[in-house]
Amino acid sequence: VMDFYYHPGSSGCRTVLMTAKALGVELNKKFVNLREREHLKPEFVKINPQHTIPTIVDNGFALWETRAIVIYLVEKYGKDDSLYPKDPQKQALVNQRLYFDMGTLYDAFSRYYYPIRDGKDASPEHFKNIENVFELLNTFLEGQDYFAGDHLTLADIAILSSVSTFEAVEFDISKYPNVVRWYKMAQEVTPGWDENLAGLESYRRGVAERKAQLNKN
Amino acid sequence: TIGNMDFYYSPGSSGCRTVLMTAKALGVELNKKYLNTREGEQLKPEFVKLNPQHTIPTLVDNGFSIWESRAIAIYLVEKYGKDDSLFPKDPKKQAVVNQRLQFDMGTLYDSFANYYYPLFRTGQPGTPEDFKKIETAVGFLNTFLEGQDYVAGDHLTVADIAILATISTFEAVDFDLSKYPNVDRWYKSAQKVTPGWDENVEGVQRLKDMVNAKKAEHKKN
Q: B118: which chain A residues are within 8 Å (Cβ-Cβ)?
């Protein structure tokens, strides 16, 4: 059994949860209360010097970074390579989508929404960036049912986690018809979607609590 | 066999230098196509057709278009590597390389960009908090390199190449690496063993020239 250090609200953690569900891998979940700075406890820093979540420990092997974890899980525990194809071209496309998810999609989320969460003003420039990014997502899905090829891969699971996080803060995806279509379908076919939903609830609660805290001060 | 491998790039770009060095290490010849991103050449319709995200680096291998520097580097090793040393097939070894690559994009290079891109654009850098984040990121790299000659395992991988491109970019803005002894040690030795290092140096110099020009421009105003 694999130790899984996580927070349910975290987008990256939800990507790992859904991937593990898809693979039938059991996770020994260890909740890390970020607000109480539990990730900075010496025992955890010993496991992961970068003290980030998600982190897994697989029989003594510690690994972090969402997308490194999910690739590892498929390669080590997948019955086949469908979630992460071995063919170099197919895999390269999944990899490009995964780096897009980290460096462009979720990056757009944090640039716009994190300052708002911290009580700062909304930036129209950063909102426009989100819209441009969703235009790209829409383009990637032109004539495609999935983000990388013709079946579900890690690219879909990671992007599903990110897009659902946008939905949780009420970003309107209706202007992006391919994304709407894909999002409806992906929810139905991705194992662990319920757990992702529960995590989003936790995320929404966290955002509301933080807002209330800021209004008090 | 390698047919037509078009490589859309700019020499200053860190990601492009990652691909250049990886290709050199593999003996893969790239048909280099320079795109002046400051003149918006990446927005030309022919290029957007190849890559709707219109970013560099972009590689077109006999009609197969791929972008994101680290995805390209991995693809080149898997397709053209004589062996898997630059990107091990073993899941655990590969996972460490992947974690380092994602650290490179999401933490290390990200911290650099947040602080220095405003400098490139306006002549004024980011906030002191942004600078602190760079120090934290390089600090993590220093920890990863404790007792290690390479960033992921015991030999050169694409993780070293990508992070070498990133750290050499720090040189363009005179970032002081001496406070990070493991990084300093690794940086000095990685230069000697990574193919294509000369081309990387040229690219960083181009970037440095651009930064200095921007600074001078800002001083005038």
A: none
By the 8 A CB rule, do B43 and B50 touch?
no
Reply yes or no on whether the pLDDT at B216 is more than 90.
Answer: no
Helix (H/G/I), strand (E/B), else coil: A3? strand
B84 CB-contact burial (10 Å; exposed 0-12 / middle 13-18 / buried 19+): middle
**pTM for this entry:** 0.97
pLDDT, tens digit (0-9, with 9 covering 90-100), for A170-216:
999 999 999 999 999 999 999 999 999 999 999 999 999 988 988 88
Residues of B marked active site are found at 13
User: Measured over all CA atoms, what is the biggest interatomic distance in chain A, rounded to whole angstroms?
Assistant: 55
Kindly report the backbone phi and psi dihedral angles of residue B128, in degrees, each rounded to the nearest multiple of 5, phi listed first. Answer: -60, -35
d(CA B28, CA A153) in angstroms, rounded, equals 29
Closest-approach residue (CA) in chain B for A89: B75
Q: Is the pLDDT of residue B213 over 90?
A: no
Nearest CA in chain A to B94: A72
For residue A71, what are the contacts with CB-CB under 8 A and spacing of at least 6? Answer: A84, A154, B94, B95, B98
| A63:B103 CB<8 A | no
Q: Which ipTM score applies to this complex? A: 0.97
